[in-house]
Amino acid sequence: MTAKKLATIILIFFMLLFIAYNPHKQDITYPDNFLRQLFELYHFVINNTFMMAHEGGHGVCYILHCPKFITVASGTVFQLGFPCLLGFISKKQGNIFGWFIGLFFLGFSMQYTAWYISTAHEGLHVSASESFLGIEGYHDFNYMLSKFGLVKADWFISGMVKLGGYLIMFYACFKMAVLSWLDEAK
Description:
This protein is mainly α. The protein has helices at residues 3-20, 34-64, 68-92, 96-118, 140-147, 154-185; strands at 125-126, 137-138. The protein has one domain. The chain has a two-stranded antiparallel ribbon.
């Protein structure tokens, strides 16, 4: 089995587990089993990688003394830009399969972004227990959506981002499968 096929199988498997054990549905309790534990480990590693990129985006703007709105938005821009950049670099080097891996992780990152948007109506402050850094802070999307009078539409905006994320993940998996199996048959 080639590395492309193995990577495709792993990412499709993870996407199916993501659908089955959506970590952003807080009102559902999932049974404790090996697949859920495997998913949670994988999700923890990948999600925290993106959260470091997110917080790094804020940090860059703190250092550069950017305006507040740009500083707040830069976290999400960096979080979504990170997998795009990795995919783009792969594509520029002639690795189209790497481009689709980057797209897959863009879709994954959009799932967290959708959940974060959906909590904008809860208020401007994020408690330390819910914060990635473990300290109280501003809720990025409450601040940004408030600027446009869209806080009450957080459910709709998050739904569109979530749908977009799933579509990107499905598309990337489909294209990786085509590159792995159908192109090899030629």
